[in-house]
Amino acid sequence: MIQSRLEELIKQGENVSIEFKSCTTELSSTTFETVCAFLNRSGGHLLLGVKDSGEIVGVKEKCIESITKNFINIANNDEQLNPTFFFSPEVFEVEDKKIIYIYVPESSEVHRFKGKVYDRVGDADNDITKRHSLIDNIYLRKRKEFSENEVLPFLKMEDLDSNTFEKARRLASLFDSNHPWKTMSDEEILRSSGFWGKDRETGKEGFILAAALLFGKENTISNYCPAYKTDAVYRNMTYNRFLHPLSDDPDVRYDDRDTIRVNLIEAYDLLMKFVHRNLPEKFYLPPSGSTQRIDIRSRIFREIVANTLAHREYSYSFPAKFLIFSDMVITENWTKPSGKSLASLDDLETYTKNPMITKIFKEIGHVEELGSGRKNILKYAPLYYKDYKVEVDNEEKFVFSITYREGDDDVSTRQVPRKYPASTPQVTPQVHELIKILNKEMSRQEMQEKLNLLDREHFRLNYLSPALEYGYIELKYPDSPNHPQQRYVLTDKGKNLKNKIKV
Fold first, then answer.
1. Nearest to 314 by CA among 332, 334, 331
2. What is the domain count for the chain?
3. pTM of structure
4. What is the pLDDT of residues 251-279, one digit of tens each?
């Protein structure tokens, strides 16, 4: 949301997708009735610090933190808002007064606030709890609009990958050592996350499509989504040269390619590895005075990769594309058109195409709160390439592009940015660094601090996972990956390599 857009919303006044609340010192009792109604209908814009008439009264500055915290707490309390939802309130100043802005997307689920179902009609929030036909209509509409909610009566637990569940537990516990998934069975994780549903037309019950996409074995996904795949392609030429090749250009279709058909949790890791193979790394030290470097490349492209996977219409037969050229990255997703073509990242609404998939991605740290992706790209892209440019097109095909270096159309001078060919597994410099500092046994945090790395995701993808995969290190407690005293030790293979490095 940008300032000019906010002022336009205030001028429009309240309607089916805009609501004002005074809330000068605290949340009003009807705030979450509106949130619930927006979630159940078509989404909307909630502005705190504005009267119903459009008069800007402002939120008291000393109350902003408590109001924001209270809003987030209610949104994450399933006894208040059920199912819960993730929001990212933003504070703006208009006419020297503070306004709290919350974008509420349309949800793929039917929500209740304090046990009541609300729907948005005009500029009113209507309690339809006892009008069962209206509630049924919401369920039917959402099932048609959000394919991730399709009920699959024949999907069984044996169709899902137990290793992916274990990975999800491990990732979730990295961010919360007491995460409830640690003590849940695979099925309990799905049911507690709302992945068991009922088809209102047929009455049949079962796991929903999102469960298969996130945790399914490869053959399971191909059964339910035969056309699902993500094409990752690297071409060592500028995008402009690709579109307008010269007659003497070499006939090379691509320099690296990965066709990804595995579940979304595994696909995320594969796409991030593809990014690290084919895009230059760049670090910076934060101004806070910390000596731990931040991997800018990971901070930017983890958001882009997550969006490529989470915000796609999986009922369509078109593959997603993740295209890297020597000057820009382009992603293509097929989606249902919003009726508005976007021109820049600033104009992009924080719209969640698949809230159920996004919910799991948030739990395991692949995305943060709603809207964080746009903020992180805007924050880190200028540090990666000062003349970066982002373009967004949101019609039937959602296309996102970002430039990351100056274009050079001279084919003879182009260099492959990665050090080792993708097809040949080599010991990367990052694995070398890890093996050099690993003494006796060390925890993940100890290794990360020893390497002076701040970004946990970058450390996991580029150092820890490859070292484990190549067999240079191993877990001290291999049968209990989430063991509270878990440590990593060198294998005999790792010790031999360490001796060679010393020599």
1. 334
2. 4
3. 0.66
4. 667 889 999 999 999 999 999 999 999 99
